Automatic annotation (TrEMBL):
<protein>
    <submittedName>
        <fullName>MOSC domain containing protein</fullName>
    </submittedName>
</protein>
<dbReference type="InterPro" id="IPR011037">
    <property type="entry name" value="Pyrv_Knase-like_insert_dom_sf"/>
</dbReference>
<dbReference type="InterPro" id="IPR052716">
    <property type="entry name" value="MOSC_domain"/>
</dbReference>
<dbReference type="InterPro" id="IPR005302">
    <property type="entry name" value="MoCF_Sase_C"/>
</dbReference>
<feature type="domain" description="MOSC">
    <location>
        <begin position="116"/>
        <end position="262"/>
    </location>
</feature>
<dbReference type="Pfam" id="PF03473">
    <property type="entry name" value="MOSC"/>
</dbReference>
């Protein structure tokens, strides 16, 4: 088994970014993954290092699907966040500065006014947003417990595509961290309760991941173009894909490294 692709999400709820290598940290997760977030200003005072809060506090793709039509790219060296759409640069700013954060916050506050929330949105009313979090990765606005990552088999995605009658399922729909090759479809569920070596990092697989309507969203256009959530239940009898794992021993993990079961 090998790591095919590594994804991080620099800003919670926005698009994924492919990385060649990431730093896994014990009881933390992936350094830089969901380190920034767009917090609604009517949900409390938005400080640069706002602690973990529930998803209702933030503008996220699951509630505002067409956020996915924006491509988010973050450069950790320059601390520059770039937002493009269809190849056109919409805004770029150094989010290590207050001026840069203000520019990003103003852009998304205006952009959200052009969107309609999903019927199940936890914060459906319009409110300005403020970019929060650390530019160097010390914060994590993840959906799950501290220290967890997500892993999905490429074969599982291929099997879903075949069963629902499409040529390809973009892994970004599932917002996972590691896509793993050379493992049979759905067999990652057999890892639950076991420990894995991702390269030289050690993780413990906790549970399958229950899915939400976010997987229906096309990661390029923001359109809900494939009813994947209902199709999972109809074709497979459940709405789970991939597994969550807790980082036990941190390390730098790179694309192409091996994945092995390690219970010793």
């Amino acid at each position: 088994m090998k790591i095919k692709t590594i994804f991080v999400h620099p800003v919670k709820g926005l698009t994924a970014q492919v990385c060649d290598r990431v730093q896994l940290v014990e009881n933390f997760g992936i350094f830089g993954d969901r380190a920034l977030a767009l917090m609604f200003t009517d949900m409390g005072e938005a400080q640069p290092l706002t602690p973990w809060l529930s998803k209702k506090h933030f503008a996220v793709q699951n509630d505002w699907g067409h956020l996915a039509s924006l491509n988010c790219a973050y450069d950790t060296t320059s601390q520059t966040l770039e937002i493009t759409k269809n190849g056109e640069l919409l805004v770029a700013a150094n989010v290590g500065t207050e001026t840069g954060r203000d520019r990003i916050s103003a852009f998304f506050s205006e952009y959200l006014q052009t969107l309609s929330p999903s019927p199940s949105a936890r914060h459906p009313q319009y409110s300005p947003v403020r970019l929060v979090g650390s530019t160097t990765g010390e914060t994590r606005y993840q959906d799950r417990d501290q220290g967890q990552i997500s892993i999905i088999s490429q074969a599982t995605l291929d099997d879903i595509a075949e069963k629902v009658g499409v040529n390809y399922i973009d892994p970004r729909r599932f917002r996972g961290n590691f896509i793993v090759d050379n493992i049979p479809a759905w067999s990652e569920f057999n890892w639950v309760g076991n420990r894995l070596k991702l390269g030289s990092a050690l993780v413990e697989v906790i549970a399958p991941i229950g899915r939400c309507m976010n997987i229906d969203v096309n990661p390029d256009t923001g359109d809900r173009d494939i009813p994947l959530l209902s199709q999972l239940s109809a074709k497979f009898g459940h709405a789970q894909t991939g597994v969550i794992a807790k980082v036990i021993t941190g390390a730098v993990v790179t694309t192409g490294e091996t994945v092995t079961i390690n219970n010793h």
